[in-house]
């Protein structure tokens, strides 16, 4: 088979890159290893009319590309439910409603706000195109985010909250990322430490009618037979003028350029001939996928709303440390999403499902009352076991990675270009970043092929 | 093709595993991606009669398996040259000879000794078979080795020396490994913090006549046509009773078991069907190969010896921070090995060779005098660019990896067994560890096939 541009991976970034390539008047061919499109987007039907979003679920107010794409594809959106009080269960205290909690911890929460302001100020100094060029990059990349948190000497409640919120974004313990990477993650979102606020500072305000999977599915439909499923790419050969992409089943695709729209760690598993430069290889050895898992409790109705609760919990007992109300727009049933992130995903993700379910239901009962004891459905989704994903939400960098290897993240290697949300400069780690990266990669290709 | 046991990788660990398999009365087949055997062992001829060891070079006094293997293969050994004074260039001071340096820094060096004793005491608490079971594992795995060093508040000279020696062993900055991993690295050698002493506490006392490569070459010869070169393994399929291993060129090898004798990061690049468990996959995403490079200056004779110098330098100016006299046993020529490790390898490894050579020669002149200005030969060797290695000396673990994922390092996955020095419990990271891992992996296979 042949095309102008071979795209590896039919996640959001790969599909959107193919669309951009097509719009530039070039012919793309998308090779997807899995038997479905969507990558880290996966809407799963639990029962007729009941869905869960195992993967990406929300967009935010400034996710303009995603909003435009949904509009173009005719996919409606609805607002995340945000009414009512959250519930807090921290440092040995019984569950408190948000107003009680705020009243009890006024001073600690003020200290937290100050810490967030300091984070804002620091993250504002990280140049998104070149985090290694931040004036204090060497200093920030030599320490972990956990060490920074320790150095703040926050009151325990404030420290715990900041840590829970950070792990909620990075999906790894703060000891596993450098301070520079944490600051980059705030800065790439353009909303700074607001990201720690409820609804993640505008990152999680909006959902899609019928589920997020409709977006990659619609993109794939528009590409038609330019998307091939069940084609794991094993080898990419290149010479001066072309690339040859070999799939497991024997399919060979030739093109002028290739866009690898996989997370860096998955991109590293393809064999490249000639081999990639060492700096690029050592970078991808150092960008592990994080550890996130979503567990959904579905009920006949969102009964907590009547109690004035938002369905958002914060807990340091767990198993889940945060939750969200993910009921549908019409509230025709109730659903709580309980996040398992970082060590929570690693610990409880390895439990037998029945035990994990039981522990999560017990937690929901503590926060939302006895009606939480009887969900109609329980579903959870683990990503590290999935061979074509191997971890969510995205990649993280420990100390030394940005400054020593970051320069190799986005530049093409000859005719090989890199997409995936990890290579975005805006909203890296989010669906919006997947589009940002796709536009850049497709732009690189189009510029060269137009010469 | 078929055999009882397929071995992936003809580095020392793979070759030795194949030998052990053969000794157990089973038939091995070794598939090597490269066009040579030896992996991270690479003796390179610079000119007739002049060699350099681009890779592994030394064994130590307690490397009993390596000593026995060399004796069995009829490969002689000789002692590392250890006479004379080292030279020190630290914290803005001009180059001092060892005696001057020790006299000038008596108190700082006493503080260093105390810090090493503390490290010894801590590392003694790490169980080699299960570092995650150390009583303080959670605490030690939540911080970087750099943070531990900071907490010691050592005098600057002592701190700098400890850092240089640590990077000399780990080949990554101390900020990139957890304290637990650093302690594990000391404990696995069984000599504790002696490893920081000159000649690395018995890890670097002895060399091989004719070069280290003679060992894998002799092993490969003894295996005959059971070793196939130029066969990159891309896919390992398994079922209840067999494995099928697919190479790039189309070769298919069937066996009952497979031993993957690659570093964890390279092992992760093979496609497995069915896929490996998520915990194993996330582990290998988090075990990057370190960054080491060796540069050799060859001279007509080891002229520094006549000046009472050992050829060992310590410098915080660099490019090299440590060196060794690697002249041959008969001193028929002189040779200084200048190590580039961690950030030194990353920074200077990316310079054009001529500039790197010039900077290293200038450093040698500072330490060994004007005769160092005119080497007869300069050779350096980089490992991250080599597609079948991708970094030396071995893998390291950042915070959280041992405690969250370490349990998945050595256990077989069905008929798939893991070798490579990274999976050893004794002398992990060294040639001795490659044998230790090979013996374990071959033993697992033999036990099961004898049932």
UniProtKB/TrEMBL annotation, chains A, B:
Its cofactor is FAD. Keywords: Oxidoreductase. Gene3D superfamilies: 3.90.660.10, FAD/NAD(P)-binding domain, Guanine Nucleotide Dissociation Inhibitor, domain 1. Belongs to the flavin monoamine oxidase family. Residues 12-445 form the Amine oxidase domain. This is Flavin monoamine oxidase family protein. It comes from the Bacteria. It comes from Flexivirga alba. PANTHER family: AMINE OXIDASE (PTHR43563), AMINE OXIDASE [FLAVIN-CONTAINING] B (PTHR43563:SF1).
